[in-house]
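Now for today's protein:

——
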Amino acid sequence: GEVMLGQWEFQVGPSVGIEAADHIWCARYLLERITEQAGVVLSLDPKPIE
């Protein structure tokens, strides 16, 4: 689960090698465009290790 109410998470895959990198790049691009139109703040910071 997410820590804050406003957090969302989605997953990309399954994919391997270069295809995995392509999927991540496309997903991040789409997220940037969608959040830009919605006026929402996007953070791509990794989950901290506990």
